[in-house]
Amino acid sequence: MDYLTVEGRKRISNRLFYLALVIELVLMIVEKSELYFSFESYVFRLTFMLTLLAVFINHHEKKEWVIIACILLFTFICYKITGRNELLRYATFVMAARDINLGKTMKFVFYTCLSGFSLIAILSILGIVGRVYVIQDYGRGNVNELRYVLGFGHPNALWGCVYALILMWLWIYGSKAKLWMYAVLLAIICGMYQLTTSRTAFLIGIATFILALIVRYVPLISGKKIFYILTGIVTPFMCVAFSTWGAIVSPVPRYEFHYPHYKQIEAIDELLNNRIHDLYRGNEKHAGSIGTWKLFSDRMSEEYFDMGWVRLIYWYGIIPAALICILLIVFIYVCYKRRDLWSVLLLLSMSIYTVIEATFVSVYIGRNLMLPIMGVYLCSFSERMINKNVSKD
User: Fold this and answer.
1) b or e along 344-360 (b: 16 or more beta carbons within 10 Å of the residue's beta carbon)?
2) Kindly report the CA angle at 321 between 317 and 323, in degrees rounded to 5?
3) Measuring CA to CA, which of 143, 172, 228, 236 is 20 to 30 A from 329?
4) Which alpha helices (H) appear in the chain, and where do they start and end?
5) How many of the other CB atoms lie within 10 Å of CB of 314?
6) Nearest to 328 by CA among 238, 236, 239, 226
7) In angstroms, rounded to a whole number, what is the distance separating the alpha carbons of residues 359 and 344?
């Protein structure tokens, strides 16, 4: 029967993946709004079972099954130690994405998010659900500061959603976009800064815009190894190094003028709206400071703080975070082999953004737009390496 063939199993696997993807995207969009949904854990179990079934139904060579078993075993051990199941869910999601049509999938994710986020903004403007703006102290000493949120609850959440849309648009259309389209993109970035006043996020947006222009209009650089090497140095090494430094100096008492480089620490922390000090002072456990880091995290370490790379290490542990960094290096190498500088641009921008914001370090799979790309690229790379070794044997 057709569904017993390799192609038939692949189609069934892809349908299961797309069903899980739709559910995760809808859940993420609801979470971004000010609506409350209390059955998230059950939905996570459902999408995990769908992607796990997709992996098992699909055809794999014997060596691929060994790799799959090792990944599932390691992430399951992480789950049993930390009580957090995200690595297990993310792993099955990525492996289930092996044979999808990546271009169509990314367009589907883009337009689904664009529709969902637009609906959130429209409902808030109409006064149906969510606030249009919030007046509070955002860490700059002004208790009456007004920033627009357009139904997303916080200006940084609003910017994060627009930022994700910008990155997806660049990946899908950036290589063929006209100059006037980039002008519109620049206007959107500047307009979002006027609404949210997120300074650091704005700078990352501008830097991403400039790099995208270079990649678009100097296409020859896509084949230059140096750009992939530089990205590999910045992502994740420099991002992790800076985050580690922040975790080390976070316990430094305020106004400790005799501490070495105190003025520099304060200047950087002020630029980041006290994110460094909050690693130590933001909660009773001092979550995020270097003293709380372990090889594997404590069970259910749920404390939240903004610095994403620190959260990655604190939530899951040093060993899982190190393996994720290695995986990112492999991904950059695969992008070099494919001469795909656009995916590298997205990874670079997201990595720098994750230094200050933990948007992409989340229980919500739908937030991480890189997962389908990584699934296709890494799984195809693994398959080629296995087939290459088999042919040698």
Assistant:
1) bbbbbbbbbbbbbbbbb
2) 125
3) 172
4) 6-32, 40-57, 62-82, 86-96, 102-125, 155-173, 179-196, 199-217, 225-232, 239-249, 262-271, 275-281, 308-316, 318-338, 341-356, 371-392
5) 26
6) 236
7) 19
Chain CA centroid to CA 146, Å: 28
- Prior bond of 251 cis (ω within 30°): no
Tokens of 169: 């648009």
**Exposure pattern of 148-185 as b/e (b: 16+ CB <10 Å)?**
bbbbbbebbbbbbbbbbbbbbbbbbebeebeeeebeeb
C-alpha to C-alpha distance for 71 and 75, rounded to whole angstroms: 6
pTM of this prediction exceeds 0.85: yes
- Please tell me the predicted confidence (pLDDT) of residue 255: 60
Alpha-carbon gap, residue 221 to 179, rounded angstroms: 19
DSSP 242-257: HHHHHHHHTTSPTT-T
Please list the ranges in the chain whose pLDDT falls under 70: 1-3, 139-141, 254-258, 300-301, 388-393
pLDDT > 90 in the chain, percent: 65
Closest to 85 (Cα-Cα) out of 369, 231, 297:
297
CA separation, residue 173 to residues 109, 181, 207, 208 (Å): 14, 10, 18, 15
| Residue 351 near residue 235, CB atoms below 8 Å | yes
Per residue in 252-267, pLDDT tens?
Answer: 776 666 677 777 888 8
Give me 219's structure tokens: 């296409």
d(CA 80, CA 14): 29
Q: Which residues pair with 134 in a beta bridge?
A: 147
Task: Tokens for 298, please give them.
Answer: 């404590």
Evaluate the CA torsion angle 216, 222, 224, 227 in order and state its sign: positive
What is the reported pLDDT for 118? Answer: 96
Residue type, 136: Q
Residue by residue, DSSP assigns 128-149 as SSS-SEEEE--SSS-TTEEEE-
CA distance 369 to 166: 11
Mean pLDDT of the chain: 90
